[in-house]
Amino acid sequence: MGNERHSTNYPGVFYRIRRRLGGPGDEKVFYVVYKRNEKLIETQVGRQYRDDMTPARAASIRGQLIEGKRLTNAEERAAAQQKTWTITAIWEEYRGHLPTNRNTSDDNRFRKYIETGLGTKKPAELAPLDIDRLRINLLKIRSPQTVKHIISLIKRICNFGQNKGLCQGLSFKPQMPEVDNKVTEDLTPDELARLLAAIDADENKLVAAMMKLALVTGMRRGELFRLQWQHIDFNRCFIRIVTPKGGKEQSIPLNDAARDLLKNMGRSSEYVFPGEGGAQRVSAQKASKRIRARAGLPKSFRPFHGLRHVFASMLASSGQVDLYVLQRLLTHKSPVMTQRYAHLRDDALRQGADIAAGIIATGGQEKKGTA
């Protein structure tokens, strides 16, 4: 490792190899070099895994630094000492450190549900009653899972401010709503056929291909958004999941259906399913909702999450895949999440046992008749 610089294909962008934070092995730490007022400046812009940093993102940040649209780390620390760090001020700082896809969803939550009531307060000024009122009011109009995401965002904002030395943290642990995560979204054969027909007929072929890949691999929406061509090993037939929800890098098999689908796709970006300008995609909501409506599925069916459940349900109900293998395919961190599919496997095993018993019983009767 050491202090050795490694060049990239982008001018003024290089990286050094450092020990990975929060995981095994090493990672690239990206730096940029540029001139301001005839002075050469070098600054770190992010880490490969923790910040989801790439040479392209680093080059974009370098451009912002050159144009004066962004501060260096040292300048940010100096400015922090002069600023009143309210929830809104900390959020504006924190959102710049988020991956693009998470930034968008969190920004919507903050603007809709947090900014108006709590934005002008400092984290140390928040009381348990503030969070209790927010939780109770939101549960009247939003699901427990959505409310949990909103309160978790408040916690992350406050923790970020405390970790960066901008403010004192929360003096209490916010109460979270109870969430039932055992919902499975099965489709009948007819519903699945209608969904596949709607996917094939949709004008957005990129989102259509992404939904098909979700169905045949069980990949999460965020994993599909982040998927790059370099993560796919066509020779060894594996897909590398760089930042799975479970917290560490994993791989899943590249099955024949997924391989054929990907082989027939064009490559216009480093991302398999790029967004605007070839950058990482941040949404597929418009097309996926349109496909769901054309298939005649209920609004409660979450297109990508639902396709992942359909994938898991089909495997579990086949009776040919045990729960450990299913856990590995779904990249579940804990077997508890996979256990929701246990009843499907049990049903398949019972059906198999009944068939075997029927064959044996029939054979016994035939032998009696021919004796």
Short structural summary:
With 371 residues, this protein is an alpha+beta fold. The protein contains 15 helices and 7 strands.
Could you describe the 3D structure shown?
There is one protein chain. 50% of the residues lie in helices and 11% in strands. The protein has three domains: 6-77, 2-Layer Sandwich (Double Stranded RNA Binding Domain); 87-163; 189-345, Intergrase catalytic core (hpI Integrase, Chain A), CATH 1.10.443. With 371 residues, it is α+β, with helices and mostly antiparallel strands. It has helices at 55-66, 73-80, 87-95, 100-118, 128-139, 144-163, 189-201, 205-217, 221-226, 256-263, 285-294, 303-318, 323-330, 335-338, 342-370, and strands spanning 6-7, 13-19, 26-36, 39-47, 232-233, 238-241, 250-253. The chain contains 15 helices and seven strands.
The largest sheet is: 4 strands, antiparallel
Characterize the overall form.
globular
Strand content: 5-15%
**Number of continuous helical runs:** 15
Q: In the residues, how many domains can be counted?
A: 3
What is the CATH topology descriptor of the largest domain?
A: hpI Integrase, Chain A
Count of DSSP strands:
7
Rg over C-alpha atoms, rounded to the nearest angstrom = 25 Å
CATH superfamily of the largest domain: Intergrase catalytic core
Helix content: 40-55%
Helix vs. strand class:
alpha+beta
Describe the strand arrangement of the main beta sheet, using strand numbers. Answer: 1-2-3-4
Q: Give the low-pLDDT segments.
A: 366-371
Distance between the termini: 81 Å
CATH class of the largest domain: Mainly Alpha
CATH architecture of the largest domain: Orthogonal Bundle
Report mean pLDDT, rounded to a whole number. Answer: 83
